[in-house]
Amino acid sequence: MPIYLSMQRVRFSSPDAYEKFKVLFADTRRHLMTLPGFLHLTWWEHPDDRSWYNECSFWTSRGALYDWHKNTYHKYCKTWAANGAIMEDIITNFELVGTRLLRICPVCNLAQDKKYDLSQEQAVLREQCPQCGFHFPILEETPSSFAVFKDAAVAVGTGKNEEGKNEGGDVKNGTAEH
Fold it and tell me: Could you tell me which of 98, 59, 91, 93 has the C-alpha nearest to residue 178?
């Protein structure tokens, strides 16, 4: 499945503008979860610059991201932001090449390094240690919408996602290098 990723780095025009943004953003999760192509959204404050914010979102396709941009709620939020709330918004979009999960169990010290399908990330992250059964910590959805997640629906028996594309594997047979 060709996963599409979007990253934004945002600077607000004032602390008050950011406080108002948080009220609007808190309702975002309710709108995102209705979109079939939405997978993941996280928002955080940069630890070295308290006026610099970062957003990362994952989508089942570029078209799914555009569906969000056509959403009425999102359009009004963008208009609000463009009318003075933000000073700067740097947007970077790219397609996924591959995903790997590296885990070391704190109980039995089993090391795992495996590729996985990002469209099914929540299920993968909920997997216990296969050796001792340890449950790894997982961030749940937050009421602030600073963390919103879901896995893509897979059509039963077809091996295809809701957009009719084949599941699994790396998009370009590669993995991210560290």
Answer: 98
Q: Quick check: helix, strand or coil at residue 53?
A: strand
Partners of residue 42 on adjacent β-strands: 56, 147
Our measurement of the distance from residue 107's CA atom to the centroid of its chain's CA atoms, rounded to an integer in Å, reads: 29
Total count of residues recorded for the chain: 178
Pick the CATH number of 4-95 from 3.30.70.100, 3.40.50.2000, 3.40.50.2300, 3.40.630.30: 3.30.70.100
Q: Mind listing the pLDDT tens digit of every residue in the chain (178 residues)?
A: 689 999 999 999 999 999 999 999 999 999 999 999 999 999 999 888 888 899 999 999 999 999 999 999 999 999 999 999 999 999 999 999 899 999 999 999 999 999 999 999 999 999 999 999 999 999 888 888 888 888 988 765 544 444 444 343 333 333 333 3
Domain coordinates in residue numbering, the chain: 4-95
Query: CA-CA distance, 67 to 4, in Å (whole number)?
Result: 13
Q: Write b or e for each residue in 54-71: b if 16 or more Cβ atoms lie within 10 A of its Cβ, otherwise e.
A: ebebbbbbeebbebbeeb
